Amino acid sequence: MADIKEITEKIRQFRDERDWLQFHNHKDMALSIVLEATEVLEHFQWKSHREVEQYGAEHSKEIGEELADVAKYLFELADNLGIDLSQAIVDKMAHDGAKYPVEKAKGKHTKYNKL
Amino acid sequence: MADIKEITEKIRQFRDERDWLQFHNHKDMALSIVLEATEVLEHFQWKSHREVEQYGAEHSKEIGEELADVAKYLFELADNLGIDLSQAIVDKMAHDGAKYPVEKAKGKHTKYNKL
Amino acid sequence: MADIKEITEKIRQFRDERDWLQFHNHKDMALSIVLEATEVLEHFQWKSHREVEQYGAEHSKEIGEELADVAKYLFELADNLGIDLSQAIVDKMAHDGAKYPVEKAKGKHTKYNKL
Amino acid sequence: MADIKEITEKIRQFRDERDWLQFHNHKDMALSIVLEATEVLEHFQWKSHREVEQYGAEHSKEIGEELADVAKYLFELADNLGIDLSQAIVDKMAHDGAKYPVEKAKGKHTKYNKL
User: Fold this and answer.
1) Mean pLDDT of chain B
2) How far apart are CA C70 and CA D75, in angstroms?
3) Chain C residues whose C-beta sits inside 8 Å of any chain B C-beta
């Protein structure tokens, strides 16, 4: 099962069985995405480039659990807001493609407004 | 198109056309998920519960663009780490279901270790 | 002791006794401020306005420890960058005062560019 | 002027002239510290160790403005919670000193529970 809509349906069901929608206002949901995202980031704190690579290879299971937490809140918030997340991603990539044309952006990490 | 793997394939292609993998180490990717997540959160700063609801309804398009940015980095980081994100979400929900059994967690926002 | 420079001197000494400057590059310092700040925020996750007030009153000691962690990294990063933080705050407030004149900003949480 | 209490007094005055205390509940304050902290972090996104050093040297003024924003919310939140921030920092450093004794922690970025 790799479909965002199907997973979102399961997330919604999990939430509603517990009667948690009352707490899942958009602000707390957005705040929760940030909190879970920083738990991913914490894995890499103080680590050098080399250490980051090795750590990632050795701890992908734990990091995957944190990424899953980000995804759960992300999919649910999109759903709560009536956003089709897959479509939003596709649209955003088209937009980014125009902001970062291959010939200008290739091999650079410069922000679009300084390209 | 709602499949995480398909979208991830497009994200990877976008990145590789621009030769950006060299910048996309796990630490900067995790950091970027956090940065994009805070852009979502910023929409709700200083707003009351009522204002949050109304704002969400009126600005879902802009918020959807920020959620898409979170998703893009999230899907790519999972991919870079060799994580099957869909499976990780399903596994995490099973795990959470055990930590938050319906009969104990219903209608409460208490953390599992205090339930 | 309430002086930023004195406290910063103690922070520097603590760090140097442990030979930690090698890890305290600006990126990891900035990342660490974010991580500690989210630990403050986590205290308020899922809580209603009323619960937040009560929780703050009852847990100010624990929250104070998290705020201290933010301050430690904040003061050290400013120091590492050669920034006089007290002066930077005073300057920023003067700048903010011009962006948010009392007569326009009073009683509103509107961003300056929409005032 | 380098005294946290004096600066906090000015911050409080700035806020009260604008009648902003009504928006400055602890949750939004904590959230705002996070948002400002990520603005610091954004300066270093995608940059290599070498680039971070050079960028920090060349942009300390802008970064100082972001650090000032973090400090303003940090000092005010501590004040709102009745926390003596200077004392909290001193106490936290004593606590950290016990968790990270020099002879065990020197030259390592290991977390205390794995030292």
Assistant:
1) 96
2) 11
3) 31, 34, 46-47, 49, 109
Take residue A101 and report the two structure tokens written for it: 């044309």
Judging contacts by C-beta atoms under 8 Å, the chain B residues touching residue A98 are none
> Please, what's the largest Cα pairwise distance for chain C?
51
Instruction: Give SS3 for D71.
Output: helix
Cα-trace Rg, chain C: 18
Which of A14, A38, A60 lies at the smallest CB-CB distance from B93?
A: A14
Of the partner residues C31, C32, C38, the one whose CB lies closest to the CB of residue A35: C38
Chain B's closest residue to A100, CA to CA, is: B18
pLDDT for the residue A33: 98
Instruction: Note the pLDDT tens digit of each residue in C10-35.
Output: 999 999 999 999 999 999 999 999 99
Instruction: Using CB atoms within 10 Å of the CB of residue A36, give its burial: 0 to 12 exposed, 13 to 18 middle, 19+ buried.
Output: buried
CB contact under 8 A, C41 and A32: no
Chain A CB contacts of B92 under 8 Å are 65, 68-69, 72
Residues found in chain A: 115
User: Are A85 and A6 in contact, with CB atoms under 8 Å apart?
Assistant: no
Residue A81 near residue B63, CB atoms below 8 Å:
yes
The beta-carbon neighbor of A19 closest among B52, B77, B106 is B106
D57: left (phi over 0), alpha (psi -120 to 50) or beta: alpha
Structure tokens at D34: 């996070």
Name residue B52's amino acid.
V
Res B1: pLDDT:
43
pTM here is 0.97
A–C interface: beta-carbon pairs under 8 A: 26
- The alpha-carbon gap from C103 to the nearest alpha carbon of chain B, in Å, equals 19
DSSP helix/strand/coil, A46:
coil
Question: C3 in helix, strand or coil?
Answer: strand
- Residue A16's identity, in one-letter code, is D
Residues of A in contact with D47 (CB under 8 A): 109
CA dihedral for C88, D49, A40, B79, sign (positive or negative): positive
Residue of D nearest to C83 (CA): D64
DSSP code for C23: G
Q: Which residue, chain included where needed, has tokens 């994009």? A: B36
